[in-house]
Amino acid sequence: MLPAIENVKPVPRPADSEKITINLGFVDLGHIDLLVAEGLYANRTDFIRTAIRNQAERHADVTRQSVARKRVELGLCRYDRPTLEAARDSGRRLHIRVLGLATIAADVTPDLARAAIASIEVLGSLHADPAVKAALSDRLL
């Protein structure tokens, strides 16, 4: 029989998307609403996501070339305390470049982040404690 586990807190799941706000002209919005009403899209969000994916696919060659040229990590990248401590301890500072989501773990202190990260460029979203973001503000590209 397993021992009882007390005071276990669920680990929050990171969001798999980020909310943005855009301004659209009334005619563009009307076109979207018409296509939704005709059943081509489930809702406005579905239309906008599809349009973005279509444009990203249309320009996929440019994206691939840029990712290779700039040495950008593609997707979800997590930087945890042991990784940053190892970089700091080796005297090697990280140049982080991510297209997607970069996450700096919650247990990373602002001092550790400054000691381990030389620069950080995120095309997408950076999730980190506000104090860590503030400590890296002069290194954000």
Automatic annotation (TrEMBL):
<dbReference type="Pfam" id="PF17723">
    <property type="entry name" value="RHH_8"/>
</dbReference>
<dbReference type="InterPro" id="IPR010985">
    <property type="entry name" value="Ribbon_hlx_hlx"/>
</dbReference>
<protein>
    <recommendedName>
        <fullName>CopG family transcriptional regulator</fullName>
    </recommendedName>
</protein>
<dbReference type="InterPro" id="IPR041088">
    <property type="entry name" value="RHH_8"/>
</dbReference>
